[in-house]
Amino acid sequence: MTTETARAASGARLLGDDVQHLVVWYHVLRTQRADSTITELAVEASQAGNVDDLTLRRTAGPDEYWQVKASVDATSPLTEVWLFERPKGRPSLLQRLYASWVTLRPRHAQLPKVVLATTKAIDPTDMVLGARATTDAHIVETLRQGTGPLAVARRRWADHLAVDEAELLEFLECLEIRHALSEKEWREKVQDAAAGARVRADNDGAAVGVQQVRDWVKAPRQIFTPAQLTGIIDGLKLRITAGRPLFVAQALERNPRGETAVYSVDWTDLFEGDDPRERRAFTDPVAARERIAADLAIARRRLRATGISDFEVDGPMRLPLWFAIGAHFCSTAGFTVSAQARDGIWLSSVAPSGQRDLQIYLPDHEPTDPRGRPWAVSVSFATDILEDVEEYLSEMHPNAYHIRARLPTPGRAALAGLSHAQAVIFQLRDELRALRQRLRPSELHLFMAMPGACALLLGHAWDRMPATWTYWDMGEPGRYVPALQVRN
């Protein structure tokens, strides 16, 4: 008895259609995220050659033209031979992709991107493709830098396309191969994208979306804007209104929740070190601060444009970033923020309790007039940082007027909960505001020891305060590094 491993032709065709429809629906859902840069989406686009399964235009970056190929069975991996194969003498897949790119190239100011999406996995023994099997979607660097057998392969690829090597490399710069994602994995990606778009992520919701794509494929070719797709999704009654949208800021390491977020920023490349535990400072502080400020300004504009003013924030990140996000999306800007804490979600709109037990100490016996001098404010909730901050200030800011704020017993249980945290946050802010009226500080240096959710809420309440520098705790006694400056 023999077992058939290959699908029938009709089964292969249905598999290819299913994967193509899932790829399209995934990108439809991506247009609904507040951080999307897609401005137009087309299915079976006209005059796109063999890369018409999906077309994407963006506000930034090149236009994308997708060709989706689902494998018939698991016996033939993605290899150079498969790309070069010429069934019945027809042009190979690589030749068809190149010819489409050549046709499209004159219509774009920026060279268009051609994306081959296939369920096939790269054969790791393939000389050219194997080197990129687990790294990224590009193969151009393998051939560009190749010597010996790879230099021969570069000539072979150029000859196959009947071009010189420079033209080959220019094309490969624009070619991405998204490989080894099965139909099941595309369905999982659709579920993640649906969560970020606040659209039903269950099987029935995905089935409705895929059916809509099928209908588009049958109809005359159309182009959709994100606003039009919003109307279509609402018409399909797939929108979810319950729950809070998610904003993910990735700094120490990447967060899987970024795929399900309505907005996500990735700052992992801004930090020194590879281990998340060691990532405590920027590699290039000036450039990093400019980028974070720009990213947060864009995020605020896009979230506001989509009507999102109440959202949950997630990391992983250290306290200065929690504080900066809270300050950027502050109450006076019309936002409500929240974050997961040890005892549940901490929400900025919750009223403070009457437990205003924050102890605030001003310097004793100051030898000079404190008016107009910079402030240093150390806030000890999770642990007492007084000695560390004093050591740092004595070397770096000896003229700072050090205001010490602490709970009676700093530690893990020092905050009784959200309403207590809100009470001491507002107590600190109000007392500092009153002092500012009298002392008029030039700027403020803020050192924090508290949960991330608390730093978010402190930043959210940090209104009508001096320009404030926050600091990275470098993990050693008395060692801090300036992080971000917040201006209200």
Question: Which terms summarize this structure?
Answer:
SAVED domain-containing protein; 17 strands; alpha/beta; SAVED; elongated; 488 residues; 14 helices; 2 domains; six-stranded mixed beta sheet
Total beta strand runs: 17
Strand order of the largest sheet: 5-4-3-2-1-6
Shape: elongated
Average pLDDT, rounded to a whole number, is 92
Low-confidence residue ranges = 1-15
The number of domains:
2
Count helical runs: 14
Helical coverage, percent range: 25-40%
Strand content: 15-25%
Protein name: SAVED domain-containing protein
InterPro entries: SAVED
Domain SMODS-associated and fused to various effectors: 310-486
Pfam families: SAVED (PF18145)
